[in-house]
From TrEMBL:
One Pfam family of this chain: AHSA1
Family: Belongs to the AHA1 family.
InterPro entries, alphabetized: ASHA1/2-like_C, START-like_dom_sf
Record protein name field: Polyketide cyclase
Activator of Hsp90 ATPase homologue 1/2-like C-terminal domain sequence ranges: 14-131
Length: 132
């Protein structure tokens, strides 16, 4: 698989954009939703939501068999509108938040990694977004 393939996942959240932004960015909320399945969780998160700020979320199997830190540095932040970042491995991602009044559309686009099939990556990121 060649580097640079972009994957998009999206969802409509039944909440106003300010609440969605808060839950997306506050570490105490990130640890409640950032998991792709019921046997995983996010026991720790840090988040400095500003251009040049860093973030890190520990994602772990609940049985303790495996964990990893997912993190990076913000390259673009417009409150309630957009977040752009570069991941620790150099890949890029961008998240758009579209305010529809009582609902918010989230469109997340990220650069695929080369270890796993695109479909698997898209499925995992979509599962996390759906859990949100």
């Amino acid at each position: 698989m060649e580097k640079g393939i972009m994957i998009t996942v999206e969802a409509t959240i039944n909440a106003p954009v300010a609440k969605v932004w808060e839950y997306w960015t506050a570490p105490e909320h990130i640890t409640q939703w950032c998991a792709a399945s019921d046997d995983w969780h996010a026991p720790k998160a840090t988040n400095d939501v500003r251009v040049g700020g860093d973030f890190s979320t520990t994602m772990a199997a609940k049985d303790g068999s495996f964990s990893f830190d997912f993190g990076g540095t913000y390259t673009e932040v417009k409150n309630n509108e957009v977040i752009g970042y570069t991941m620790g491995d150099g890949r890029v991602a961008r998240i758009l938040f579209k305010d529809n009044g009582n609902t918010t559309d989230i469109v997340e686009t990220f650069e695929a990694e080369t270890q796993n099939p695109v479909e698997m990556q898209q499925g995992g990121w979509q599962a996390i977004l759906n859990n949100f």
